Amino acid sequence: MKHLDLQVIEQALAWAREGETLWLCTVLSTFGSSPREPGSWLVARSDGKHVGSLSGGCVEEDFLARVQQGEFDQPVTLVRYGENQAIQTQHPSITLPCGGILEVLVERLIPDTPTLVHLEVLHATLLGQRCLTRCVDSTNGSFRFLSDNGMGPRVEHDTTRHLIQMRIGPSARLIIAGISPVSVVCAEFAKTLGFEVIVCDPRDEARDSFHVSEVEVQAVLPSLFISSGGCHASTAVVALSHDPRIDDLAMIEAVRTPAFYIGVMGSLKTSQSRRERLLRSGGLSEDDIARLHMPIGLDLGSKTPAEIALSVMADIVRVQRDKPRDQL
Where do the XdhC Rossmann domain residues begin and end (predicted)? Predict the structure, then answer.
């Protein structure tokens, strides 16, 4: 299953190549209860056909109706749905759940060469190995790209400079080193959260017991997959086999990559033994060890595989959102 961002941009590219004018919408911010997070995309054309989502219902219906009525004819428009005062335009008749507020950037893109190049860059970034920041001037719609490390908020709006910065990067990837009961639930959770999930385990019997749809399974040592270039900056690596021959090697290779999260399952005692082992014979430095989350996950008092998997994915999302533990 393709990540929704990729589906939006691929459809935008196809329509632009056919000579269609496009409206690319980005959720800038949400307040209160809102179904979609900042950075979410929707692309539409003048007849109302669209791909993507802004709210999961009412906002899309209003926006698409207004597009078909000829509104949003400027290069860029800022729209606020829900209560509170408008930014530039507002439709108070749209009420979001629990009094939520949704701010949306609407860009009108004509099918010329700059638009095609723009969309090609977005497409390549979503499929590639590096992250970019897309900067849009909210007064005239001009844009540019900057290099980025992929960490932090997906959207930042500098109202003083009229500048909107949106982080774009490869779909979040989760590499699961070794199959265990925790691995199964972790893969399910990650898939639901929109991660591309890759499970690596050389053991035939372990792979025979793994049944999660839309998850790639590699019959190799995780360390070999990681060392062959399996990680980019939007990758999390978790070792969940409880077999040090699998887990330790995965950690040794993972610290050589730009992965944003590297963790290994085990108790405090097991983690201390692993730390000493990796320093002594694994060739890791203290800085390398500091990158490892061990014991893995948030301390939720987890006992069952599902609870452990929940703590693992919660910690990955925390790091992905650049949220310190002491701010939870």
Answer: 174-316
Give the DSSP letter of residue 193.
T
pTM, 2 dp: 0.72
Q: Using the predicted structure, report yes or no on whether residue 90 has a pLDDT greater than 50.
A: no
Which residues contact residue 293 at a Cβ distance below 8 angstroms, ignoring those fewer than 6 apart?
261, 262, 263, 264, 315
The residues that bridge with 108 in the sheet, in sequence order, are: 23
**What is the secondary structure of 311-328 as a DSSP string?**
HHHHHHHHHHTT--GGG-
Say if residues 327 and 310 touch (Cβ distance below 8 Å).
no
Residue 104 in contact with residue 9, Cβ under 8 Å?
Answer: no
Q: For residues 165 and 144, give the distance between their C-alpha atoms in angstroms, rounded to a whole number.
A: 10
pLDDT tens digits along 168-207: 988 789 999 999 999 999 999 999 888 989 999 999 999 9
Other Cβ atoms closer than 10 A to 211: 9
Which phi and psi angles does 188 have, rounded to 5°? -65, -45
Contact 63, 24 (CB under 8 A): no
SS (H, E, C) 228-247: HHHCCCCEEEEECCCCHHHH
User: Can you tell me the distance from the alpha carbon of 325 to that of 327, in angstroms, rounded to the nearest whole number?
Assistant: 5
What count of other Cβ atoms lies within 10 Å of the Cβ of residue 107?
22
- Provide CATH 3.40.50.720 ranges for the chain: 173-327
**Domain 173-327 in CATH 3.20.20.70:** no
